[in-house]
Each structure stands twice: as C-alpha cells, then as structure tokens.
TrEMBL record:
<protein>
    <submittedName>
        <fullName>Proteasome subunit alpha</fullName>
    </submittedName>
</protein>
<dbReference type="Pfam" id="PF00227">
    <property type="entry name" value="Proteasome"/>
</dbReference>
<dbReference type="InterPro" id="IPR029055">
    <property type="entry name" value="Ntn_hydrolases_N"/>
</dbReference>
<dbReference type="InterPro" id="IPR001353">
    <property type="entry name" value="Proteasome_sua/b"/>
</dbReference>
<dbReference type="GO" id="GO:0051603">
    <property type="term" value="P:proteolysis involved in protein catabolic process"/>
</dbReference>
<dbReference type="GO" id="GO:0005839">
    <property type="term" value="C:proteasome core complex"/>
</dbReference>
<keyword id="KW-0647">Proteasome</keyword>
C-alpha cells in the first residue's frame, strides 16, 4: 500500500467518508461553563453518553457505544496511572490526549487494514485554579481546545450552528439552572436553523426530544468541599429543567 501513495490517500479519504456517514445521526453533546463550574448535556436513546473520568475531568461520547467505552476505559486507566505514578495535578486532559489516545487514534485511522473508531469525544476540565477548558477529539486523533464551551455532533452543519451560538453566549455569568435552560434552548434553535424540507431529523424540538430520548447531564462544580467535582444531575433537577424548557 505504501508503494502506491495515491491508493493510500484514496483509502484514507474513503475512511473519512465512511466514519462521517456512520456518525451523521449521532445526537450532539454540549459542554459549557457556568458561574460555579462547567456542565455537559446530551440526549441519547439510552444512558451512557456522559461519564466522570477523574476528579476534575468529565467525558462525553458520540458514536458506537463499544468504541466509546473502549476509549473511556483507556483514558480512565491512564488517568489513574498518572495520578498514582506522579500526582493528581499531573492528571490533565492535555497530557491524556497528547501522550495517550491522540497518537493511538491517528495510528489506528491511518492503518487502513484496521477498522476505524466510530467516535467523537468531548472532554471538560477544571484546573486547580478553577479555570475551565473544553476539548474535542476526532476519530482520526485530531483534537482542539476551547475556552467558552464546545460541542460534538454527527452532523457538521449542526455542529457549526451550535458552536456559533455557544461562542456568542456568556455562559459564565449564568447560574446552573439558567445555563442548563440556555444550553437546551440553543440545541433547539440550532436544529430549527438548519432544518429543511428534506430533513429526516427524528426530533427537531425539545418536546419531541424529551418524548423520544433520555436527557443526560452532569456538572463539574467548584461549589463543593469534595475533591471530586463531578456529579450527575438528579432526576428532580432533570424534571425541573424539562418543565422549564416546555413551559
């Protein structure tokens, strides 16, 4: 294959198209800051979209559940190994990506005889100065850093529309309740903005999404005495959010 560069490039291009087509119907995961931390949310057919990774790190996944779980376990093992061998302050997303899964994902994607990972990952972190950062990881190992929030979505047009709305919103001034409601609102607005007559999106409104899927949400909250900042939103908090969204 390497003796024929054109065929290798053609194979890589085909793999990009194949993975993007597989991810196209994946529902977005949104992560944004708020007054006392960061929050992450997303709709899914069944629970298993948002996870705690380490004391100050959370992970959201989109794509094939088996691939997301395999990478989650890899990151989890790396985080605990870094924390044990060095210190908890050395467990950062940048280290886990740069020295961990990003090179592995790139190698996997470029070895065209192996099945590619069908994933996109979104990570959020609060450092020991309580500064929030957001990271988006692609199936080919490419990763980006964001300060104002980030999103992963199978549909590129939807991802771009959501990213634009996140960029133009000052989430850091909002309470948790207001940030949750605003994140849900921009989810709905972005879907409606890109919808056309040929759209086959199964849920264009929050009402349809609540009826069809489960909303998962979690926060990294600095308003706590615990070392671990992660907590999932309770059923009561989700129900309160649902009523606010539909009122």
């Amino acid at each position: 294959m390497f003796e024929e560069p054109f065929r290798w490039l053609e194979a890589i291009s085909t793999r990009h198209s194949y993975v993007q087509e597989k991810l196209k119907k994946g529902q977005p995961v949104i992560a944004v800051p708020y007054q006392y931390g960061t929050l992450m949310l997303g709709f899914s057919p069944q629970p298993g979209k948002i996870f705690e990774l380490y004391d100050r790190i959370a992970l959201g996944g989109l794509g094939h559940p088996a691939d997301v779980e395999r990478l989650r376990m890899t990151l989890l093992d790396m985080a605990h190994l870094e924390g044990f061998n060095r210190s908890e302050k050395d467990v950062t997303i940048a280290r886990l990506l740069q020295f961990g899964i990003a090179p592995s994902l790139k190698q996997n994607f470029e070895e065209v005889v192996r099945a590619p990972y069908l994933i996109q990952l979104l990570l959020m972190e609060i450092d020991f100065n309580n500064q929030a950062s957001f990271f988006r990881v692609n199936y080919d190992g490419h990763w980006e850093t964001f300060k104002k929030g980030a999103v992963i979505a199978g549909d590129t047009q939807l991802s771009d529309a959501l990213e634009e709305k996140i960029e133009s919103t000052d989430f850091t001034s909002l309470s948790l309740d207001d940030a949750l409601l605003k994140a849900c609102r921009i989810w709905e607005e972005a879907k409606k903005d890109i919808a056309d007559e040929e759209s086959d999106d199964p849920a264009l409104t929050l009402k349809e999404a609540f009826e069809k899927w489960t909303l998962e949400a979690a926060v990294l909250s600095t308003d706590t005495e615990r070392r671990a900042l992660y907590r999932s939103l309770s059923p009561d908090e989700i129900e309160k959010l649902k009523m606010a969204c539909l009122s």
